[in-house]
Amino acid sequence: MGIKSFMGPRAKTVSKKEYDAPILVSDYMTQNLVTFTTDQSILEVMEQFTKHNISGGPVLDDNGFLVGIISEADCMKQISESRYFNQPILDKSVEKFMTKEVETIPHDISIFDAAGIFDRHNRRRLPVMRDGLLVGQISRKDIVVAALKLNGQNWK
């Protein structure tokens, strides 16, 4: 004798095209970035951090290509050195203190994959790339905000 199912008809599965919630990094990234150049002074960078209330930003070359990232932690090196040698903060260039090995993230991955990348790497922000060009930046806070928005709209 066969087994009967008393569950009734099953609901239609939602295809990816029917799911309209914004879940990509490009939906939540910051596009209007404060950027820096390699020849800017570290003092000028610190002033920009306080002016714009940011803690870091991408460093671009003369052609607009990403060559590094500078953060408050990088500036701490300069502050520490100036204190150690009892000298004022000098006009040393960003190039000396920036992180040159920059981890980036593609624009078209989900915020869930981005959360995994943030979990594996100890970074506060990641530059977002499209076809080798910088198109934005996403932070850990952006991912948290995105998850809260999705939770309120779509998760049940």
From TrEMBL:
Statement: the UniProt record of this protein carries the keyword Nucleotide-binding: no
Alphabetically ordered keywords of this record: CBS domain
Residues annotated as signal peptide: none
SUPFAM superfamilies membership: CBS-domain pair (SSF54631)
Ranges of residues in domain CBS: 29-85, 98-156
CDD domains xrefs: CBS_pair_bac
The protein's name: CBS domain-containing protein
Domain of life: Bacteria
InterPro entries, alphabetized: CBS_bac, CBS_dom, CBS_dom_sf, Diverse_CBS-Domain
Record keyword Membrane present: no
SMART domains: CBS (SM00116)
